[in-house]
Amino acid sequence: MIDLKQQAALTALNEMMRGKHFSICTLDKVADLLNVHPDPEAYRTLRALHCIDYAAMPRDLYASLPSLIQQALSGREVFQFDVRPPAPLQLAAANGARPGEVVMIDEPKRPSLLRRMLGHG
């Protein structure tokens, strides 16, 4: 059975990932709760992303957030949280659109990267 501190940490991380932007404050609170000293290299990378909207991040950077958070907190697979899919792409002058017209292109839905990596999707 997972203890209450781990449940609280997992809940906080899930809530952050369901939001619109990355918050180093959440990571700080989780590390403090679990009495973990964050890995300096991963933490520096994540700290640079503080308050940046997920939609503004390159897709590969966004997809790497779960592993960076794991590395920052322990270097081990401790949490299994879901990353919400990025917003649909906005492309100009695509699919016969007039120049300057913005069209939405939805990508097919698939399980989150973390769920696929852990064999749950």
Secondary-structure-derived class: mainly alpha
Mean pLDDT across every amino acid position: 76
Total number of beta strands:
2
Shape: globular
Helix-residue proportion: 40-55%
Strand content: 5-15%
Which stretches are low in confidence, meaning pLDDT under 50 for 5 or more residues running? 102-108
State the end-to-end distance.
Answer: 23 Å
> Biggest sheet, strands in spatial order?
1-2
H and E string = HHHHEEH
What is the overall number of helices? 5
> Could you say how many structural domains there are in total?
1
| Biggest sheet architecture | 2 strands, antiparallel
Radius of gyration: 17 Å
Describe this entry's structure for a reader.
The protein is mainly alpha-helical and 121 residues long. The protein has one domain (4-117). 44% of the residues lie in helices and 7% in strands. The protein contains 5 helices and 2 strands. It is globular. Residues 102-108 have low confidence and may be disordered.
